[in-house]
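Posting for a labmate who doesn't have an account.
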Amino acid sequence: MSSGHDHSIKNYNSAFTIGVALNISFVIIEAVYGVISGSLALIADAGHNLSDVLGLLLAWGAIWLAARAATDQRTYGFRKATILASLGSALLLLLSLGAISWEAIGRFSDPQPVHGMTVIIVAGIGVVINTVTAMLFISGQKDDLNIKGAYLHMAADAAVSLGVVIAGAIGMFTGWLLVDPITSLLIVVIIFIGTWSLLKDSMNLALDSVPKGINVAEIRAYLGDLPQVSQLHDLHVWALSTTEVALSVHLIITESEQLPANFLTRIQQQLHDEHGIEHTTIQLEKEGDEQCLLNG
């Protein structure tokens, strides 16, 4: 028997529209003034912001796909697109970080003067834009890896832009040319930490690992302690999407116990309320029946 709980994907269309528009505009501004001022820190941050725009577009498209109805060919619909989008976003970001690191290392042997005030003003605009964008996703970042990725990236961008402001001020008042590539590498390190976490979580979900926060041992203990259940096998827990978790299990029912009318409903409700399982599939088997092929 399977149970699918209604799961409404919150409408983030407005948040994505505003976030993408703001960040595309800022990428253009930051890249142009990065070239004019000779600031690798600005160009690096522009490249990172561009990768974030692509990440926002991936997340947005995946959420749209996940809302589409299932078909005979895709019985789960496109829910897994949200997982693939978060994985793709992390990989894009890693490529961007590699390019920034390469350019920054080259600047150590050939440092360039930077127009400090230009850097401070443009990066300051970035602090505001990235903070506003992050706030658009703050309400959903606890429950959805896609939204969490968007939120963390924007919040990190706000901090990084603030770092660029500081680097611009140091360069302007001290004339230290190496502050720009050093700041760029610090940007890479900060972003890499968050990106690595996103990459691991996304990869785990893509490989059908048990999602974070779900304790399979506790679920097994709960099911095994039911008075009507003598044994259980083939317990599987995996992510249907970045917001939905599925479970399947075979329960062997004790012959001496009478099943209550709400037996399956009670189990499904308990798994939903205590463990966040959205989609439960339970196969019941009686003791003494022909052995299940999956338990052979």
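Reply:
Got it, the structure tokens are right above this. The domain at 7-206 is CATH 1.20.1510.10 (Alpha-lytic protease prodomain-like).
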